[in-house]
Amino acid sequence: MGPAPAGVQHRGAAGESEVMELALEDTCKEGKKESSKKCTLAGSPVDGLLQPVKLSQAELYKEPTNEELNRLRETESLFHSSLLRLQVEELLKEVRLPEKKKARIDAFLREVHQRVLKVPSTPKTELTDQTWLPAGVRVPLHQVPYTVKGSFCFLPPAQVTVVGSYLLGTCVRPDINVDMAVTMPREILQDKDGLNQRYFRKRALYLAHLAHHLGQDPLFGSVHFSYTNGCHLKPSLLLRPHGKNERLVTVRLHPCPPPDFFRPCRLLPSKNNVRSAWYRGQSPPGDGSPEPPTPHYNTWVLQDMTLESHVQLLSTVLGSASGLKDGVALLKVWLRQRELDKGLGGFSGFLVSMLVAFLVSTRKIHTTMSGYQVLRSGLQFLATTDLTVNGISLCLSSDPSLPALADFHQAFSVVFLDSSGYLNLCADVTASTYHQVQHEARLSMALLDSRADDGFQFLLMTPKPMIRAFDHVLHLHPLSRLQAACHRLKLWPELQDLGGDYVSAALGSLTTLLEQGLGSRLHLLAHTRPPVLEWDISQDPPKHRDSGTLTLGLLLRPEGLTSVLELGPEANQPEAAEFRQFWGSRSELRRFQDGAIREAVVWEAASMAQKRLIPHQVVTHLLALHADIPDTCVHYVGGLLDALIQSPKEASNTKGHMVVSQGGELVMVPNVEAILEDFAILGEGLVQSVEARSERWTV
């Protein structure tokens, strides 16, 4: 914009041009035309810059309008400050989906809907007869064991419906994913398809046939398979548009049964739907022993049955309440910055949306609240409510046939029931993940309550991966060692329930083992699994060992961290045998100064730096003893700054000279340049250390 000539009037007679800057339009309104003093731009045209506006005395001290007063009241009651409000509004503008892109996405969804309905049918065959599949597509499921009863034929879907956050208006950028529920016709399914993975086999075959035909359509630039929330029994089909719009959106197709096909009473957490004789390939036992329950398997079937009902619930609750939608978007950004919504067992954006719906139903959140207030209320609830002890439910029914919360607590670590009363929304969330969410929520609430100027920056704008959030980090690799750990820990029921996913089966036992061993040294233990990447439809699905590295983070307590002694019970106590069994050869009898003879474990540590690494000794010993995981498979990251803390001190002491003071005493005068050089070396070392801790470990 060029310089404005001096003396040009901005509110004058009709026909005069308005050259005032857009930011000043609210100040010089047309209602001031009759004012004797005009809004002018002062200054010399030689400056080449826009000059401040000269306002009349009446305009400087005019009363605020009703709109300005209402905005000030809202800022005072709904936000801490005007700055925070501006920051939140700008963030929401950045993560919301623009209307122009919505129109293009809607057009693409209509094309997908038409093409899915036109996929041709196939003749009926046995589930094990898959010769009808074309050579260019593979079944996106590990069929182990392969033999299973039942028949399959492809028929066009009974219904294709958009579900998820896109329909609700709560999806956030940069990655826009649209979920579509593809309802399979009843003719494909049979009454006993809930048993022995029959439903999941048909689901995978249905996807494979869709992938073959849609992959030949020029509308799509890429057609890939992926796992739904990391669950290897539930693949989904990813469709992206062709050409320059390939990054516009990713459509995920989720085959699902008719809503009322499976009876919910057969999918209770106490029921078994995977027979041991079929899964292990053994003849059924004749002693009449009960089958182990399969709560996770049952939950995955229920999840497909309730896709549409959950969208209807959220649509009713969120409705036209823009504040609730903004709050859900902010909570999703909060989770994403902390990487808490990734992979199997993550605290996903869907769970946050259902949590907001629960808080609305319990009147802890009102529909008139702003997005910032919804964010605070959600974080406050997470920080103060332990769902591993006291579960919550969206179900309002008093039907006595419904399972109780206690039944779900016996089967799952975290309990949050949906409106049907049968489905635990947090079935895949581990106790360690939820405790990490609680910990981050407490820190965030303390940051918000402090009203710090940079609170918004730390809360929603700064990434906080595990390497930044924990003191020590350990990586387990290769993951195939966890298969031996499952055998060592005798986790056959868990493997049967999880369809052979030995990583998920061993994870709970490993975290419990390490929490018990670290004891008072540990404040928080968390884990993270990298999400399984998508794969081409012509490739076999990735195996469990291909999912990268299992990472565990340890947040340690300063109190007791450097203690070299694990004190056990007295030798004549019944707990002594359990102590010896837990610690193995490290446990030994010792006599103490008070005359007591106790079981104890003593760790080798001569210096303070070695004492701070005692958790390393504890972890490697317990994993090798109980899980058959050698120390060569444990890459431990911790104590990297100890050498840097000591080296500058030694260097500085050698870089100085002795002088004689006025009193005749020798005084060491340090060399300032040498000290500055040491600080520079320390800074470079710190940067290298952080980079070393941040890089992904490879073998």
UniProtKB/TrEMBL annotation:
<comment type="function">
    <text>Part of the small subunit (SSU) processome, first precursor of the small eukaryotic ribosomal subunit. During the assembly of the SSU processome in the nucleolus, many ribosome biogenesis factors, an RNA chaperone and ribosomal proteins associate with the nascent pre-rRNA and work in concert to generate RNA folding, modifications, rearrangements and cleavage as well as targeted degradation of pre-ribosomal RNA by the RNA exosome.</text>
</comment>
<dbReference type="GO" id="GO:0003723">
    <property type="term" value="F:RNA binding"/>
</dbReference>
<keyword id="KW-0158">Chromosome</keyword>
<dbReference type="GO" id="GO:0006409">
    <property type="term" value="P:tRNA export from nucleus"/>
</dbReference>
<keyword id="KW-0694">RNA-binding</keyword>
<dbReference type="Pfam" id="PF17404">
    <property type="entry name" value="Nrap_D3"/>
</dbReference>
<dbReference type="Pfam" id="PF17403">
    <property type="entry name" value="Nrap_D2"/>
</dbReference>
<feature type="domain" description="Nrap protein">
    <location>
        <begin position="178"/>
        <end position="317"/>
    </location>
</feature>
<keyword id="KW-0539">Nucleus</keyword>
<dbReference type="GO" id="GO:0032545">
    <property type="term" value="C:CURI complex"/>
</dbReference>
<dbReference type="InterPro" id="IPR035082">
    <property type="entry name" value="Nrap_D1"/>
</dbReference>
<comment type="similarity">
    <text>Belongs to the NRAP family.</text>
</comment>
<dbReference type="InterPro" id="IPR035368">
    <property type="entry name" value="Nrap_D3"/>
</dbReference>
<dbReference type="Pfam" id="PF03813">
    <property type="entry name" value="Nrap"/>
</dbReference>
<dbReference type="GO" id="GO:0006364">
    <property type="term" value="P:rRNA processing"/>
</dbReference>
<protein>
    <recommendedName>
        <fullName>Nucleolar protein 6</fullName>
    </recommendedName>
</protein>
<dbReference type="GO" id="GO:0034456">
    <property type="term" value="C:UTP-C complex"/>
</dbReference>
<feature type="domain" description="Nrap protein">
    <location>
        <begin position="324"/>
        <end position="462"/>
    </location>
</feature>
<dbReference type="InterPro" id="IPR005554">
    <property type="entry name" value="NOL6/Upt22"/>
</dbReference>
<dbReference type="GO" id="GO:0005694">
    <property type="term" value="C:chromosome"/>
</dbReference>
<dbReference type="InterPro" id="IPR035367">
    <property type="entry name" value="Nrap_D2"/>
</dbReference>
<feature type="domain" description="Nrap protein">
    <location>
        <begin position="468"/>
        <end position="627"/>
    </location>
</feature>
<comment type="subunit">
    <text>Part of the small subunit (SSU) processome, composed of more than 70 proteins and the RNA chaperone small nucleolar RNA (snoRNA) U3. Interacts with RRP7A; required for NOL6 localization to nucleolus.</text>
</comment>
<dbReference type="GO" id="GO:0032040">
    <property type="term" value="C:small-subunit processome"/>
</dbReference>
